[in-house]
Amino acid sequence: MAEEKKLSEQESLELISAMIQKVKNSYHDTGIGSLLWGTVVFIASFVSFLRFRYGFNIGFDIWLIVMGAIIPQVYLSIKENKSSNAKRYDDDAIDAVWLVFGLTIFGLSFYQSTVGDTTTKIIQEEGWVMMKHYINEVKPDEQLRPFALSPYSLYILVYAFPTLVTGMVKKFKPMIIGAIVTYVLFMISCFVESQYDFLLGGIAALLCWFIPGVILRKKYLGQKKANV
Hints:
- The protein is an all-alpha fold.
- It has one domain.
- 76% of the residues lie in helices and 3% in strands.
- The protein has 8 helices and 2 strands, in the order αααααββααα.
- The protein has helices spanning 2-26, 32-54, 64-68, 70-83, 91-126, 151-170, 173-189, 194-227; strands spanning 130-132, 142-144.
- A two-stranded antiparallel sheet has the order 1-2.
- Helix 5 (91-126) runs antiparallel to helix 6 and helix 6 runs parallel beside helix 8 (194-227).
- The radius of gyration is 24 Å and the shape is elongated.
């Protein structure tokens, strides 16, 4: 009985080890998601910077491409989940982090789009308005519409959060470094004009997602080629 129990324990350890190895080998990150988000956020940010810098109009809201990227992202996530035979124990936690990230971005967008109208309504009910007064009187006073100050600085701050968590959990240094630099970019954005926030946000998108995505994609294709 003792030998049978000892053998059973040994077999159990071997089985657990084999399962862990199977999960390790079956898990992969194609890098497509990072490349997708890094690309669209960089384009939207950089075009926004150019638009504010040079005062041109492209005829539509460039940030709609970020909203449009949600559809292929969902498709790719479903496809990757179906193609994966097993998931690592920390994958659900990472998925939850990015879900909260998405909800936070939506919340910031909702705040940015509503705070001006809501504030305008409140101050009108109180019987006063915001005015822009030039100290040297080179221009007449102008009535201002309330708006959120430098909201894109907050976006940059939020970009770093899920990237740093993912990098630390997966022990993926490019994301860790990208997130740390993005925190620095956030602090810089607090001291510059709002138009430069978009430029800094574009750099953050490259560091947090696009460059790590290129590295992940190259690694994934290399592993796939080796397994063929």
